[in-house]
From TrEMBL:
GO BP, sorted A to Z: response to hydroperoxide
Pfam families in UniProt: H2O2_YaaD
Source superkingdom: Bacteria
UniProt source species: Actinoalloteichus hoggarensis
Protein name, entry field: Peroxide stress protein YaaA
InterPro entries associated with the record: YaaA
A cellular-component GO term for this protein: cytosol
């Protein structure tokens, strides 16, 4: 299962400093090393970093995190990333067995690391899919040639919950895609963004709580329904999650 990252990340970490060789997907190590070096060096120029990263002067602490990448303490990736998707996934409340499956089944798309496993130890950092580091061009041009083949070589079912910007960094051929729709009291449906991240996080939770890894779209739908989600198959390689809106107070 492929998750998006988050701009917000937990601070601190009591794990050992970053060791690129300890991360999953070793095929990505060379590009990771290039980007970590570039981000750290850019952080020596705070105004330039703020500009490249699209940050305001009040966010200088984010630049400081990048400056300290090499020596900072680490956290497992699923504990490092925060925000709506990860709140809905609710890693702290997973059982030990569920957490083991989460670390094994979940991968997070990262602008800095390409892809990381759920349990991979990483420091806090700031870099977005649309960033362009001086002298390196777009992150898409760096990641697609190396991360794309990694995903293309995966066997078994892949469920892609990434946003468009991160999906563009590495294609996942044949992956199951997930769309979130709202449904009003009259049954009319529309694509929405407000429930998108929350429901995708809940689907990720559903897919780590089942013992057998899903092998088909129908099994993804069934796992979602077991957790109380409204899910439907949409064609051979897609799933719709439905957010049903309550009728307005006083309506009849």
């Amino acid at each position: 299962m492929l998750l998006p990252p988050s701009e917000t990340k937990a601070h601190g970490g009591d794990g050992p400093p970053l060791n690129l060789e300890a991360l999953s997907f070793p095929e990505l190590t060379d590009v990771r090393r290039t980007l970590v070096r570039a981000v750290s060096e850019l952080a020596e120029d705070v105004p330039a970093s703020l500009d490249v990263l699209g940050l305001s002067p009040r966010q200088g602490a984010e630049v400081a995190r990048n400056a300290g990448l090499a020596g900072a303490g680490t956290l497992p990736a699923l504990a490092r990333y925060t925000g709506v998707v990860y709140d809905a996934l609710d890693v702290p409340e997973l059982s030990a067995a569920d957490l083991e499956r989460a670390n094994r089944r979940l991968a997070i798309s990262s602008a800095l690391f390409g892809l990381v496993g759920g349990g991979d130890p990483i420091p806090g950092y700031r870099l977005s899919a649309g960033s362009r580091l001086p002298g390196l061009g777009s992150l898409r041009s760096l990641w697609r040639p190396v991360a794309g083949p990694v995903l293309a070589a995966r066997t078994g079912l892949v469920v892609d919950l990434r946003s468009g910007a991160y999906a563009a960094l590495a294609e996942a051929p044949g992956a199951v895609t997930v769309r979130v729709l709202s449904e009003d009291e009259f049954g009319a449906r529309s694509v929405v963004s407000h429930a998108n991240k929350h429901l995708k996080g809940r689907l990720a939770r559903a897919l780590v709580q089942i013992e057998e890894e899903p092998a088909s779209v129908d099994e993804v739908v069934e796992a979602a329904r077991l957790l109380g989600l409204v899910a439907e198959r949409r064609g051979p390689g897609a799933v719709d999650l439905i957010s049903r809106l309550a009728a307005p107070v006083g309506s009849s």
